[in-house]
Every structure is written in structure tokens, then in C-alpha cells.
């Protein structure tokens, strides 16, 4: 299953990217394209809603790291919301949980942005 990414903007101008599917070699380009589009439109605050992501691998993590670099390059910030157990374990094993703040819900991620 390819990754599907739905984009919405909050009233505060924060972009929420709701991803569904597998964040792997096949799905990573979809996330990268969505982040690039958000950055091109001037959005510097992005939340990736990971609730619908069923699996992540090293290529998927690479796309998230690339997204962080792109957003931070424009003086912005990127947060992860609602990662499932498998995604959290991968973030913790790679110590990326220290780089990416992740939140239990999108609403928590939006708080204090």
C-alpha cells in the first residue's frame, strides 16, 4: 500500500500532514513531496500525523529527517504526532526520539507551537 498524505492548515497557519500507509521506500517520496509543497507555500510549522502509518523503515526515517532539515532550514519546526508502537520503537532504537519531539495526539503537537 502506497503512502497517502492529506494536507490541511489549522487556523493558526500550521500545516498538518496526515499520512496513511507504509512509510518505506515506496511511500517516502509522497511524504517528501508533501513537506516540500508545504515549505514552498511558506509554511514553517508542520505536524506529521502518523496515526495512520502502519510501518516505517530506514528509508521512511530518512524522509522524516529530510523533512526536518528542510523545515528547519526555513527557521521552522517539525513535530510528529500519534506514532504507533512500531514507529516509536524505531525512533527510540535509532535515538531519533531525541531529535523529533513526538506527541500522543495532533492536538498536543499543536499546543504551544
Structure characteristics:
113 residues; alpha/beta; Transcription Regulator spoIIAA; 4 helices; 5 strands
CATH architecture assignment: 2-Layer Sandwich
Series of secondary-structure elements, N-terminal to C-terminal: EEHEHEHEH
CATH class: Alpha Beta
Enumerate the strands of the largest sheet in spatial order, edge to edge or round the barrel.
1-2-3-4-5
Number of strands: 5
Characterize the overall form. globular
**Rounded mean pLDDT score:** 93
- % residues in beta strands: 25-35%
Q: Which class do the helix and strand fractions yield?
A: alpha/beta
Q: Say what the CATH topology is.
A: Transcription Regulator spoIIAA
Radius of gyration equals: 12 Å
Task: Sketch the major β-sheet.
Answer: 5 strands, mixed
Overall number of domains? 1
Distance between the termini: 32 Å
Low-confidence stretches: none
Layout of helices and strands, plus pairs?
Blueprint: E1 4-9, E2 15-23, H1 28-40, E3 45-56, H2 58-73, E4 77-81, H3 85-93, E5 102-103, H4 106-110
Parallel strand pairs: 2-3, 3-4, 4-5
Antiparallel strand pairs: 1-2
Helix pairs in contact: 1-2
Summarize the structure.
The protein has 113 residues and is α/β, with parallel strands linked by helices. It is 38% helix and 30% strand. It has 4 helices and 5 strands.
Explain what this protein looks like in three dimensions.
The protein has a 5-stranded mixed β-sheet. It has a single domain (4-104), classed as Transcription Regulator spoIIAA (2-Layer Sandwich), CATH 3.30.750.24. The chain has 113 residues and is of the alpha/beta class. The chain has helices at residues 28-40, 58-73, 85-93, 106-110; strands at 4-9, 15-23, 45-56, 77-81, 102-103. Helix 1 links the parallel strand 2 and strand 3 (45-56). The chain is 38% helix and 30% strand.
Amino acid at each position: 500500500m502506497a503512502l497517502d498524505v492529506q494536507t490541511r492548515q489549522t487556523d493558526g497557519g500550521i500545516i498538518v500532514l496526515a499520512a496513511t500507509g507504509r512509510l518505506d521506500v515506496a511511500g517516502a517520496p509522497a511524504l517528501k513531496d508533501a513537506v516540500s509543497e508545504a515549505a514552498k507555500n511558506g509554511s514553517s510549522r508542520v505536524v506529521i500525523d502518523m496515526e495512520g502509518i502502519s510501518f516505517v523503515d530506514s528509508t521512511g526515517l530518512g524522509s522524516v529527517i529530510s523533512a526536518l532539515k528542510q523545515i528547519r532550514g526555513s527557521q521552522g519546526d517539525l513535530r510528529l504526532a500519534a506514532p504507533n508502537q512500531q514507529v516509536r520503537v524505531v525512533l527510540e532504537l535509532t535515538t531519533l526520539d531525541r531529535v523529533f519531539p513526538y506527541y500522543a495526539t495532533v492536538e498536543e503537537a499543536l499546543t504551544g507551537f
